[in-house]
């Protein structure tokens, strides 16, 4: 849904939170942030309507959102979101990684879910506005960041299957430590054969909550089998790799080739694409194609596939040690992280934290 009524600029109204956390409360949270447990003192809110376009941008105290019981999102799941991070560099400046790519993906998700497309400049400005008032929440300890969650949903109150005419866009943020409590150790993954994440022509390529809701029963199955994540196969033939419940998958062959599944029902991962670009910069061959679970199984057995990792905004890059299925296993729970996997992770995080040269111009300063 194109937004043809967007004003040239947005002037944000700022309402400071009179109940902002004290310095002591803030220090306690930053010391042990966890992931997605604590939130900053403010949030961004921008309205959209069919007749008024994007309007009434504001930064306001973080708190409950008032919804009519007939709000369309509650009945028809017309909702999308994004995820990115703000990083504090050694000089105390605050940066984000490829926010323009997140803005573009939010627009693609909006098109698929019949929501208005937020212009890239509004997306970037919403991040800057939040950082301007909540910059103290960006932690500085190693492997920490401020996780930023922009999201948009249908707020119009009506019962009827059609695109909503009133929508709101919000941005909230949460200080984050390491995604996995055990640190950077190879994951054990459960192979789901009973459930599919998304189907051909569905919403798999959009970052919408329904995709994640449908993955939860399979994720619980993974937990029941002692695994941290679940791997989905395609819905048509049930033999080609798709992605994990919340991350993309990459395999590394013994000749240095990186292979990642290609499908129109996979979310286009910004972290994955960045990692693959860094690999290509080093001269590695990259293949984006259909990959069967049997290819992985056979390749691991004969030594052709020597590493595997998962990647996404929250977890960055995490080695995969073991794939568990009903009647077979790939790899080992005792596997060590792959050399190339960790080298690429180090380079990517080095760029994000300002320790490694940003040759591609991926970083954008948010506090300037």
Structure description:
With 368 residues, the chain is an alpha+beta fold. It contains eight helices and 18 strands. The strands form two sheets. Strands 1, 2, 3, 4, 5, 6, 7, 8 and 18 form a nine-stranded mixed beta sheet that branches. Strands 9, 10, 11, 12, 13, 14, 15, 16 and 17 form a nine-stranded mixed beta sheet that branches. The model has no long low-confidence stretch (mean pLDDT 94).
For the termini, the CA-CA separation is: 32 Å
Number of strands: 18
Strand content: 25-35%
* Biggest sheet layout: 9 strands, mixed
* Share in helix: 25-40%
Shape: globular
Uncertain ranges: none
The number of helical segments is 8
Order of helices and strands: EHEEHEEEHHEEEHEEEEHEHEEEHE
What is the CA-based Rg, rounded?
21 Å
| Overall residue-averaged pLDDT value | 94
Structural class: alpha+beta
List key phrases describing it:
368 residues; single chain; 26% helix; alpha+beta
Summarize the structure in short:
The protein is an alpha+beta fold.
Question: Layout of SSEs?
Answer:
Layout: E1 13-14, H1 23-31, E2 42-49, E3 53-61, H2 72-76, E4 79-81, E5 84-88, E6 94-97, H3 99-112, H4 120-134, E7 145-154, E8 166-176, E9 187-191, H5 209-224, E10 229-233, E11 241-244, E12 248-253, E13 258-261, H6 270-281, E14 286-289, H7 293-302, E15 305-312, E16 316-324, E17 329-331, H8 339-352, E18 363-365
Parallel strand pairs: 1-3, 9-10, 9-16, 13-14
Antiparallel strand pairs: 2-3, 2-8, 4-7, 5-6, 5-7, 6-18, 7-8, 10-11, 12-13, 12-15, 15-16, 16-17
